[in-house]
Amino acid sequence: MCGSIRCFRRLSLRASAPVLVTFEPGARTAWHTHPLGQRLIVTAGCGWTQCWGGPKGEIRPGDVISCPPRHKHWHGATAATGMSHIAIQEALDGKVVDWLEEVSDEQYLAEPKPE
Question: For residues 59 and 45, what is the distance between their CA atoms, to the nearest angstrom?
Fold first, then answer.
């Protein structure tokens, strides 16, 4: 991961407890997958997301992004604007994410593609 990222998890016994994640401008995750998929609900700011082999897209408050199981992707704030989202994913054998390589500056700074 790159930059300042804060996670706020509510105490819950549920395997799919939501997590509020806040990215400062320029912060992003590494490439990663989720064994049972993930849903993101953007709550504030402006961000970018990209699935492996696809274009980078812009995400804004109210957007809901669904990533299928084992689908390689990254997400984070834009270079100039912070972004927050609620992340919901379930654990498989106690694991919710598989972290992979860092997102390169070239990938991160590539022009987003309009929908």
Answer: 9
Q: What is the 3-state secondary structure (H, E, C) of 4-66?
A: CEEEEECCCCCCCCCEEEEECCCCECCCEECCCCEEEEEEEECEEEEECCCCEEEECCCCEEE
**Phi, psi of 23, deg, nearest 5:** -110, 130
Phi, psi angles (nearest 5°) of residue 106:
-60, -45
Please report the sign of the dihedral spanned by the C-alpha atoms of residue 18, residue 74, residue 82, residue 95. positive
User: What is the distance between the alpha carbons of residues 39 and 37, in angstroms, rounded to a whole number?
Assistant: 7
The pLDDT tens digits for 43-73 are: 999 999 999 999 999 999 999 999 999 999 9
Give the Cβ contact number of residue 31 at 10 Å: 19
What order of strands is seen across the sheet that includes strand 73-77? 56-59, 47-51, 73-77, 32-33, 98-99
**The pTM is what?**
0.85
